[in-house]
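Researcher: I'd like a structural prediction for the single chain below. Treat it as a standalone chain; there are no partners to consider.
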Amino acid sequence: MLVTSWDVFDSHRRANDMTDHTPQKRCTQCGESKSITAEYYTRTKSTRDGFHTQCKVCKQANNRAWRAANTTRSMRAAVKHTLNALREEKRTVRSGAPLTEKAS
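Model: Treating it as a single chain, here is the predicted structure.
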C-alpha cells in the first residue's frame, strides 16, 4: 500500500484529536498555560471566564509573601475575622436558631 503525505497528516490529526479539549489559560505570574479548571485556578466573579488571572500556586506564593511583609495588618485582619465570627455565633445562639456546621 502506498502511504501518501495525506495519510501521514490524517494519522497525526486523529492522534491529536484524542487529546484533552479543555480550554487553556496562561498564568500572568509564571506564564504557564494550564487548563481552566478549579484544580489550577481559583474562582472569581470579576473576570469574564470566572477564574483568577494567576494560578493557585502563584496566588498562594503571593499571599504568603504579602503576609510576611505585612504581619501587623495580617494579624489585625485575622483577629477581626475571628471576633466577627464569634459575635455572629453568639447572635445565632441568642436567637434560638439551630447552629449549622460548615461543610468540609
